[in-house]
Write a structure and sequence with these properties.
Length: 510
C-alpha cells in the first residue's frame, strides 16, 4: 500500500521532501559538529599557550574562542584574565572580568575579581617599594619618598614604606620628619621594629651635633683662637666619647703648641678602649716629642750655663751637636730663659741660627748692657769660633769689651795647631775706638801682644817718638805698633791701607 502511495505524484513529492529534509538535517548536524570541534581546538590551544607562558598568544586564542561560542563564557574569560595577569596587565584583566560579570553575574567571576584585585595591589606595592629602593640607592631621596608614599596608599598597614621614608629623611638630615614618620607608622602598623629607627635617628642627631662642634673648633683653631677651639673639641668629646675625630684634631692642636703632656693625658686612657691607629700614632708622636723636648731643654740649659760661665769649649761642643743643629737651631730664631731665672731681669739667650747665639741683657728686643755674642764655625769638621764679650747699646757692641777669634790651622810641616787672637779695648758702634790691645796665642800659649790706638775702627799710625797722628790714605802698608814678647820689643806690626777693625758681622763695611 505504501509503495502504491509513493508511486503516485503526491507520493513522489513527499519522498522528495523527506530526502531534502534529511539532507538539511545532515548539513546542520555537520556544521554544528564542525563549529564545536573548532571551538574546542581553540580553547585547548588558548589553555596550552597560557600554561606555556606565551601570554600574548594565549590572549589572542582566548579572544578568538570567546567569539566562537556563547557558552562557557566565564571559564574563557577567567583564562583570558590569567593571560593578562601574565603580562602584568591587571587593569585589563579586571576589565574583561567585570564585563563578563555584568552579563552572567557568575560567582566564579566575583571570586576572580577579588583575587585579581588583591594580586594587583601586591604587584603595584612591590613595584613601588622596588623603585623606591633603587632611588634610595642612587641617593635620589625625594623620588624614593614619593614611591614609598605610593606604597603606603596601596597597603597602609605595611611597615616597609614607613621604614623607607624615615631612612630617606635621615639621609637628608630631616630628623624631625623622620621621627614623625616612625611614630605615625608605629601607630598604624603596630610594628615594634620601627622603634629601632628612633635609636638611629637619635644617634644621627647626636652625630650632627658632634660634627658641628668639631667644625666650629677647627674654625677657631684656624683663626688662632685656641682657647675657644680647644673648648669646642672638649665639648664634642663629652658628647660622643667613642668618636675619634675630636681626639685626633685636639691632639694635633696640642702637638702644634708643643703641649705634649696634654696629648699624653688625653690619649693614654682613650687608646686603652678605642683601637685606632691614628690616635695611637699621635700618642707615640707626643711621647717621642716630649722626650725630645726634655732633651732640648736640658741642652739649652747647659748651653746657657756654659755661655754664662764663659766655658767656650763646652759652648762649641754643644753648638756642634746634632741635637742642637737639627732640633734647636732648626726652630731659630728663638729665645730661652731658664725657669730658675726671673724673666723680669731681662737676661736671656737668643739663638739666631746654627752658628750665631747671644747671651745677655735684652730690652724691647734689643741687646743692651752686658752680653756675649758667639759665632761657631759652621763646618762641623773644624773647631773655629769667634765671639764678642762686653758692653752693648742699641743692639750693637758699644763700650768696653773684647773679641776672641780661634782657628784650627796647619803649619808648613803639616802639624795642626790652634791660633787664637784676643782684642781688648773700647768699641764704638762695633768699631775699635781708643786704646786697644791684641794678644796672640798658639795652642793657648801667648806668643806676643800689641798695643795700638784706633779711631772709628781705623788703626792709628805709629811713630818712633810715640806721637800719634790721624792716618792719611796710604799707598803701602803702615806701622801701628810694636809686638812685645815676654816684655821685650819685637818686630813692627803693619796693616794694609783702608783697614777697619771692630766686631765682625756688625761692621758696616762695603
Amino acid at each position: 500500500m505504501l509503495h502504491g502511495v509513493l508511486s503516485t505524484k503526491k507520493g513522489k513529492m513527499i519522498t522528495a521532501g523527506m530526502g531534502l529534509l534529511v539532507i538539511i538535517l545532515g548539513v546542520y548536524a555537520f556544521t554544528n559538529y564542525s563549529k564545536s570541534h573548532n571551538f574546542e581546538e581553540q580553547a585547548v590551544m588558548a589553555e596550552n599557550y597560557l600554561k606555556a607562558g606565551s601570554y600574548e598568544q594565549a590572549i589572542k586564542a582566548y579572544e578568538k574562542a570567546l567569539k566562537m561560542t556563547k557558552s562557557d563564557q566565564e571559564s574563557l574569560t577567567i583564562g583570558l584574565a590569567n593571560a593578562y595577569i601574565g603580562i602584568n596587565e591587571y587593569e585589563k584583566a579586571l576589565e574583561v572580568l567585570r564585563s563578563c560579570y555584568t552579563k552572567t553575574s557568575g560567582l566564579k567571576l566575583i571570586n576572580k575579581i577579588e583575587e585579581v584585585s588583591s594580586e594587583k595591589a601586591d604587584y603595584e606595592y612591590d613595584r613601588s617599594i622596588s623603585c623606591a629602593k633603587i632611588y634610595f640607592k642612587n641617593k635620589e631621596y625625594d623620588k624614593a619618598i614619593a614611591e614609598y608614599q605610593k606604597a603606603k596608599q596601596i597597603k597602609g598597614k605595611k611597615s616597609a614604606a614607613y621604614h623607607g621614608i624615615a631612612e630617606a629623611y635621615i639621609e637628608m638630615s630631616e630628623f624631625d620628619l623622620a621621627r614623625k614618620e616612625v611614630l605615625d607608622g608605629r601607630t598604624i602598623t603596630q610594628d615594634v621594629t620601627l622603634e629601632q629607627i628612633l635609636v638611629v635617628i637619635d644617634a644621627r642627631i647626636l652625630k650632627e651635633q658632634y660634627n658641628t662642634l668639631v667644625k666650629q673648633a677647627a674654625e677657631y683653631i684656624s683663626q688662632e683662637n685656641y682657647k675657644d677651639g680647644i673648648a669646642k673639641y672638649l665639648e664634642a668629646i663629652d658628647l660622643m666619647p667613642k668618636e675619634t675625630q675630636a681626639y685626633s684634631e685636639l691632639s694635633q692642636t696640642y702637638i702644634t703648641q708643643k703641649e705634649y703632656d696634654k696629648v699624653i693625658t688625653l690619649l693614654k686612657k682613650v687608646t686603652e678602649h678605642i683601637q685606632d691607629e691614628n690616635l695611637q700614632s699621635l700618642l707615640d708622636q707626643a711621647t717621642d716629642n716630649q722626650k725630645l723636648e726634655k732633651e732640648k731643654q736640658q741642652l739649652l740649659s747647659k748651653l746657657y750655663n756654659a755661655l754664662d760661665s764663659r766655658s767656650i769649649s763646652e759652648v762649641t761642643k754643644l753648638m756642634k751637636s746634632p741635637l742642637y743643629k737639627d732640633n734647636i737651631a732648626a726652630d731659630a730664631p728663638l729665645q730661652y730663659v731658664p725657669f730658675r731665672d726671673n724673666i723680669s731681669n731681662k737676661i736671656c739667650m737668643i739663638i739666631y741660627d746654627s752658628s750665631n747665639i747671644f747671651l745677655g741683657e735684652v730690652n724691647s728686643n734689643k741687646r743692651v748692657g752686658k752680653g756675649i755674642f758667639f759665632i761657631v764655625e759652621p763646618d762641623s769638621t773644624k773647631e773655629g769660633y769667634y765671639y764678642y764679650d762686653g758692653e752693648w747699646n742699641n743692639n750693637v757692641p758699644d763700650g768696653e769689651g773684647k773679641t776672641v777669634e780661634e782657628d784650627q790651622l796647619t803649619d808648613k810641616d803639616g802639624a795642626d795647631y790652634t791660633n787664637t787672637l784676643v782684642t781688648e779695648g773700647n768699641f764704638s758702634n762695633a768699631e775699635e775706638d781708643g786704646r786697644m790691645m791684641k794678644y796672640f796665642y798658639r795652642d793657648s800659649k801667648e806668643t806676643g801682644r800689641l798695643s795700638y790706638s784706633a779711631v772709628m775702627g781705623v788703626p792709628i799710625l805709629f811713630t818712633s817718638d810715640k806721637n800719634r797722628i790721624s792716618p792719611n790714605p796710604q799707598e803701602t802698608s803702615y806701622v801701628i805698633g810694636i809686638i812685645m814678647r815676654d816684655g821685650v820689643e819685637g818686630e813692627y806690626f803693619s796693616v794694609e791701607p783702608k783697614t777697619v777693625w771692630g766686631v765682625k758681622t756688625f761692621l758696616d763695611i762695603d
